[in-house]
Each structure stands twice: as structure tokens, then as C-alpha cells.
Amino acid sequence: MSALSEMFEGKIDFHGQRLVDQISKVVLVAAAIISFIVGFAMQSLQVTFFLYGVCIVILALVVIPPWPMFNSHPVKWLSVSEEEKKTK
């Protein structure tokens, strides 16, 4: 049960968030350019939107799940000091 809950918790570190952001920006721009060129060459808006939609679905499969590569620099939190424990 704990392995399943950890999988759905979605922990990624700050470096992973930056990597996801960079991947998303590059893939979305590249997909827009490629789908526009292919759609223009085939003179079909349907092809343009279908190709762009396929690229978005593939991108979602890459960046939405919390893959281990997005948590390769986990944050080390400080432990609570004894003085703070006494004041609570």
C-alpha cells in the first residue's frame, strides 16, 4: 500500500521541476513548428491539429508522471531543534 501511495504522491525536486519546464517549452515549440510545416505542406488543418495533439499526449506521458529522473536531487530538510520542540 505504501509503494502505491508513494507513486501517486508525485514528489519531484526543484531541479526536476526546472527540467520538466524546459522539456515542455522545447517540445511544445518544436511540435508547433513541425505540425505547422507538415500541415502547410499537406494543405490540411486536420493533419496540423492531429499531429500537434499527438505531440501533446506524448509530452504528457513524459512529464506528468513523477519519474525518478525528476527526483535525482532531493531536498534535505533540517531537523527540528530541541529548543523549538520545547516551545511547542
Detailed description of the structure:
This protein has 88 residues and is mostly helical. The chain is built from four helices and no strands. The protein has helices at residues 2-9, 14-42, 45-63, 82-87. α2 (14-42) packs antiparallel against α3. The mean pLDDT is 88.
Q: Hey, roughly how much beta strand do the residues contain? A: under 5%
State mean pLDDT (0 to 100 scale): 88
Task: List segments where confidence is low: pLDDT < 50 over at least 5 consecutive residues.
Answer: none
- Terminus-to-terminus distance: 32 Å
Q: What is the H/E string?
A: HHHH
Using the CA coordinates, give the radius of gyration.
21 Å
What is the approximate shape? Answer: elongated
Level of helix content? Answer: over 70%
Number of E-state strands? 0
Main sheet properties? none
Instruction: Give me the oligomer status.
Output: single chain
Number of helices in the DSSP assignment: 4
Query: What structural class do helix, strand and pairing data support?
Result: mainly alpha
Give the key terms.
88 residues, 70% helix, mainly alpha
Could you outline the blueprint of secondary structure elements for this entry?
Elements: H1 2-9, H2 14-42, H3 45-63, H4 82-87
Helix pairs in contact: 2-3
Short note summarizing the structure:
With 88 residues, this protein is mainly α. It is 70% helix and 0% strand.
